[in-house]
Amino acid sequence: MDCDKVGKDYVACFECDLLIETPKLTAKQSAFCPRCHSLITAKSSNNLQYALAYAFAAVILLVVANLFPFLGFSAQGNKLTMTLWQSAQTLYHYQSEILALLVFSFIILIPSLLVLGVIYVLWPLIFSRQIVKGGIPIARALFTLKHWSMAEVFLIGVIASLTKITSMAQVELGLSFWAYILFVIALTLSLSSLDKYRFWHYLDQAKRCQHLHQ
Amino acid sequence: MPAPSSVKSVTAKSVGLQNCRVCGLLNDAKHKYCQRCHARLAMRTPLSLQKTIAWLLTAVLLYLPSNFLPIMHTTNFGRESSSTIVGGVILLWEQGGYFIASVIFAASIVIPIIKILVLIWLVVSVKYNLFTHRHERALMYRLTEFIGRWSMIDVFVVAILVALFQLGGILTVAPGIAALAFAGVVITTMLAAKAFDPRLIWDQYQNGDK
Ligand SMILES: [Zn+2]
Ligand SMILES: [Zn+2]
Questions:
Q1: Least Cα separation, residue B205 to chain A (angstroms)
Q2: ipTM
Q3: Do B72 and B107 belong together in one domain?
């Protein structure tokens, strides 16, 4: 690699391009850019093992969130329930196909791709120092898709809708609703532990190991 | 304290290196793709300002219908009524849901406008080489990027109400065209923020500048 010297001793700030001495991976404090104060890397207690553990929890919770009723209510003698999946699917029945697809992507598809991707890439990286097939493009996609998961925004939307209808109906929160709340927490913790800087450095180390073994 | 120390404001660009925006590897200027993660490289995002403006224009065009057309149609005992985003907020406020009404008002009306104005300010200040308020601009950029997704709340409210009342018979809720337009506003403003390269704010920086 032709940039080896600079690449080892310096990194550049993502937001202002300033060259900065490479922060230590074991540092007890987060490193910020001295010029624009953006985050360079989170502190070492925020490590990749946590990202993997939380991702596992998130997968289980997401499965649970899709198995049971999400919300239910009774009004004028009628008892109705809806599932998480139906919040996107019903839009489809009203000829709002694009909207249905967007809602489905933001609250179910992208969040599940994220947690599955984290597990797929991190499991072999952490336990056998291996980079899986397709690991690099998937990791690249993870860091891009991260901004398009709106699971937590959806939760606020649920609370807002409940406020809207409490005056006309008795609302029951289903098992899936609680599972989805826990899923959002696990997903957020997993993604915040997936530090960009730290991740790519572990990947580099794993790559060096693979070369040594060949 | 392991805070990285600066090297007299030397940037990667000034020594002929391109920082990969995906993985943070410093690549030699001759490379087109990152040597580590294979992402497309550039010293600065090509046509960053033009792309930002293009997405912003789309956002503004979608913002008008999203606020003036109905976001949902309610049928109650055969009586049909439609409501806009603002109408929904006012109704909630009258029902006493002050907190949620404020949240939806902020997310659906205030935040999109602020985001659009901030991005215009960022583009104009870079275009005309304004050298002041760099820290404020950097902060506003970070805030705009962070807050982007939170505007989607009202779209999800429509999705939930539609699903919840689908079997009702007595009361049904159907999505309005503004729901899609508003989702478009959120997506295009997010893309506008992504298209803006924050490094442009700092490119003319000299020690001692604010
Ligand atoms: Zn910086
Ligand atoms: Zn890269």
A1: 10
A2: 0.89
A3: yes
